[in-house]
Amino acid sequence: NAGKVWTVPEALTEAGIELCTMLVKTYAEFDETHPYDMGAGFGAEPWSQEEMEVVDDLAKEAAGWSDTAIVLIGRTAGEEQDYRDAEGAYRLSKIERENLLVIRKAFKRMMVLMNVSAVLDMTDIEAADPDAILYAWQGGEVGALGAADMIVGKVCPSGKLTDTIAKRI
Fold it and tell me: Which residues contact residue 139 at a Cβ distance below 8 angstroms, ignoring those fewer than 6 apart?
């Protein structure tokens, strides 16, 4: 019953980051034709949603607007199931892997913001050589605001982790 659930783009804008309007529009159009997949009921949502392919021309156009990309890797928070050692669950999907490489090639700097419910295999993420990685975990309705505060340097992400983040399964 939250009054407002902040999305990552909303939180970044609130933190003073100007988003590429062409890219925001492109993703909105993709979302119109690729709605959120609720799965088959409680606990049966897919771990990841269909991702838009980022082609070279789109990445180059966005890189002409800014030299820094923030790439969001998301996983649906699930209940009654564990991650499987499969693409789109514990491992990145083919499109996620390809997008990271295309974006890395086009931008001077790339940050990967991981909005996930558990650790992921880091092999393909590290292969894309991001300049920064932020695990946002399950921040609830205001978690995106906290992530944005870290990205702009308003707060320092210097907490102590209670979990082990394994690089590989």
Answer: 146, 147
